[in-house]
Design goal:
heterotetramer; A: alpha/beta; Glutaconate Coenzyme A-transferase; eleven-stranded mixed beta sheet; 14 strands; C: alpha/beta; seven-stranded parallel beta sheet; three-stranded antiparallel beta sheet; globular
Chain lengths: 224, 224, 228, 228
Amino acid sequence: MTPLTRDQIARRVARALPDGSFVNLGIGLPDLVPNHIPADREIILHSENGILHLGPRPPAGQEDWNLINAGKQPVTIRPGGSYFDSALSFAIMRGGHLDISVLGAFQVSGDGDLANWSTGAADDIPAVGGAMDLAVGAREIWVMMEHSSRQGQPRIVRRCTYPLTARAVVTRIFTNLAVLVRTEAGLVVEEIIPGLTLAALQQQTDAPLLAGTQAGRGLAPLEG
Amino acid sequence: MTPLTRDQIARRVARALPDGSFVNLGIGLPDLVPNHIPADREIILHSENGILHLGPRPPAGQEDWNLINAGKQPVTIRPGGSYFDSALSFAIMRGGHLDISVLGAFQVSGDGDLANWSTGAADDIPAVGGAMDLAVGAREIWVMMEHSSRQGQPRIVRRCTYPLTARAVVTRIFTNLAVLVRTEAGLVVEEIIPGLTLAALQQQTDAPLLAGTQAGRGLAPLEG
Amino acid sequence: MSGSINRRVTRYAEAIAGIGDGATILLGGFGGAGVPLGLVAAIAEAGLRDLTVVSNNGGSGEPDLSIWLAGGQVRKLICSYPKSKASSTSSFTDLYRAGKIELELVPQGTLVERMRCAGAGLGGFYTPVGVGTALAQGKEVRNLGGRDYLLELPLHGDVALLRAHQADRLGNLTYDKTARNFGPVMATAAALVVAEVDAFVALGTLDPEAVVTPGVLVDRVVTVGAPR
Amino acid sequence: MSGSINRRVTRYAEAIAGIGDGATILLGGFGGAGVPLGLVAAIAEAGLRDLTVVSNNGGSGEPDLSIWLAGGQVRKLICSYPKSKASSTSSFTDLYRAGKIELELVPQGTLVERMRCAGAGLGGFYTPVGVGTALAQGKEVRNLGGRDYLLELPLHGDVALLRAHQADRLGNLTYDKTARNFGPVMATAAALVVAEVDAFVALGTLDPEAVVTPGVLVDRVVTVGAPR
């Protein structure tokens, strides 16, 4: 029973992105996704600072600091890309024009509430950036994160204790242990790493889980 | 005592446009203004359909029907001109970015109310276009019109009887008889055609008039 | 990259496939500039009925919106300037006087801003335009910062039909001169966005700085003169 | 045409002339892209105090907003992301922890939309962003069409300081790649708009289709590297 590595989570997410989709990748764990997009799939990446169809980081020495992503890192632009101002960029995000927004998170609730912008600690410098905008508007909001915190606390919870980013938005969760989908009935486990039982997964999860099989879906092995 | 012709009113308005100003000219009487702009003055014209720095109508046979003004007539663009979409065009109008909007009118009240979009007649096809947007937002709203209607009714009134375009917006009125400025104290006549007395002008004007001299301004002869 | 995305369709019938009776159509153009005449003809030919049409103008007697009006295809027009020089003989005038068409008259800047509002995922906005006029009837008036405003609500379309200049297979668009007008905003405000273009160009041809409508907003592109 | 309009100024001192203590400054840029570093330096040198600064970021330790913060010039920051990797040692962090600076934290899309609202002459707008979060505190929540929204108000500047790519004497601007970001909107939202550009070009050089900020929105242009 081996939890996925961060790169394996990214690989699982990358495989789930439909061919031809327009996607925003948040900063943090989602940064790893582009490295794993299958070669036969055309995925158009958007970044909040006003660019569509980002390409990879350029070779050292060829960075253009006017061509960066939301993480302020140098990137490239692919043929068919475009630049636009922040107003249009956020209209694209908030207006439901992106297929998927992939975000990191501190916590997700069974109701799809998302907490990913602030730990709420007293000495934390508050900073929201585009997090709240990204969490509202895309047709699907996916979260990728470790299943538990470094202190071993569940991150999939009945109710978020960290400050909320948005309510009832997350549709799918990819962790190092499982893939979960939010349904009317609740959180359904669709994939689980081989050797881990649903009962054992539930022990590491605060929100109640349904097996894919219970929901009439298969419960498949999670592979990175 | 000769009232100004339509072209003379246009010439008076054109002389009043400050060098370097950004101006929107409404349809109707304001159409005549560009012909009279003094050669040593640079006036940048805006049209609501998304163009800055319009030039004159092209020679016959060289019309480009993708290059038109708000009156749907073919125009040209001058060096330093630009195209933009309707959202930005109306943001420029409504957001106070134009120096002057010059409009035709049916009626103007002493309080600066403007009526220029509908006669209110029962069989009139209602059509507002950009009239209400143009009447709100420019730093100055100027009206140019005949002093009286074809039926001899005053067009400068205590209260507009035609449907309003906007309230308390007009700052200056150019007619075939006079130039008037709206002040805190009321409508001040700044210029009047030679031979016409203020009393005679008042007879053709429903709203009360103040002489420029009363308001501590000169009362100058109106020349087209 | 497999190049799997291709917004181009080769026939007008494909360009308008799936648009049904009762649809709300955002129709681009100001006067004669920016009206997708080929798409207009295709909708006329398809005989769709009961349409709600959002258009700055009401048809000029040319083969524009006029032919939908003449064909009795339009139930309601949302418009800033339904009059035209050809008004006295236009279909709109006849239908309106006969009470056979519904008109929602909207100041032009409010019209475009309501579509932008829809396209940007906002719930409404306050505008000073129209305060104290007949067009404020039934609208909430609110004083904010000492000035009165009207509350205006988003205006969504089921479909936007646009005229653009160049397009690539990702759906990126440029426009030609003042034919740009409502196109870029309508492209944000409809569930299905279809553009009729002068030219379809290879990917990488369009300058990323000069793309006006990014492809993420566009679903189908058809070239002017394509077969029905 | 006499060519009497000329937005160009030759010195940074001229570019910032008239900006006073207590001004609200809209400062362009996202991360390091689009920050007008020469104008930032000029404001620092002028020693202006008590500034309210609207900026997406809070300074990175580079000679950006950081130098105004370090110089104690900023009373209040309106910002989406005041943290930086250099946070633990940044001026903002120190000032904030010491209670010496006021922070208004605004989601990035709301920040740009509030400036657009101001620039477009609107009175406010309803956004779904932030509903049910700590950033909704004190804001009106309103259900429109079945969804909850927050009322957000326009954000005006006394001054906008922008970084653009090319300019002509009428003030028309283009931008370079993702350095465009907040520039085009900030140019609409301030009483005085000053752009620092890579190059000043002859009138007629810029393609009218590719001008992003029309000159009507711009008051002064200074070229990077101009004398103080």
